[in-house]
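In the design runs reported in the main text, the only information available to the sequence generator was the tokenized backbone. The following block is the verbatim input for one such run; it is reproduced so that readers can re-run the procedure and compare outputs position by position.
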């Protein structure tokens, strides 16, 4: 991803970076961009250690998954973009087709009221495909419709 410099792009607004940050570089280090990232628990202590000896950078994606992870040997990044969708209705249609394979497992839910609806569809989809879902000390059998 190219670094947007102050004075370089008229429309970079809050994403502009001064020349003294990453001097001489046109691109950020390799990093994971997005709303969230997952990492294995064994990386937490190493990330903390790297953060304690590294000047902070305010774009958290770049800092945590780029600058800090670059200091840790053997880190392997995996893109989850193929499982993600901004299109809530598309994902709902996948779950409503009970016999279809669900491609999207990460979805942007536009309103809190949609979360229960999405959850019910997920449970219905799993149950229709023969999955046994257990919650706490019981088995899920009575799942409301997800229409």
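Verbatim output:
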């Amino acid at each position: 991803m190219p670094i947007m410099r102050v004075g370089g792009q008229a429309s970079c607004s809050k994403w502009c970076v001064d020349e003294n940050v990453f001097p001489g570089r046109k691109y950020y280090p390799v990093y994971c961009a997005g709303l969230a990232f997952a990492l294995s628990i064994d990386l937490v202590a190493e990330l903390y250690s790297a953060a304690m000896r590294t000047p902070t950078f305010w774009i958290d994606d770049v800092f945590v998954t780029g600058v800090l992870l670059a200091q840790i040997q053997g880190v392997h990044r995996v893109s989850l973009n193929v499982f993600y969708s901004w299109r809530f209705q598309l994902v709902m249609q996948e779950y409503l087709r009970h016999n279809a394979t669900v491609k999207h497992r990460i979805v942007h839910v536009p309103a809190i009221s949609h979360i229960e609806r999405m959850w019910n569809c997920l449970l219905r989809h799993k149950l229709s495909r023969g999955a046994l879902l257990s919650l706490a000390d019981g088995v899920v059998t009575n799942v409301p419709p997800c229409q």
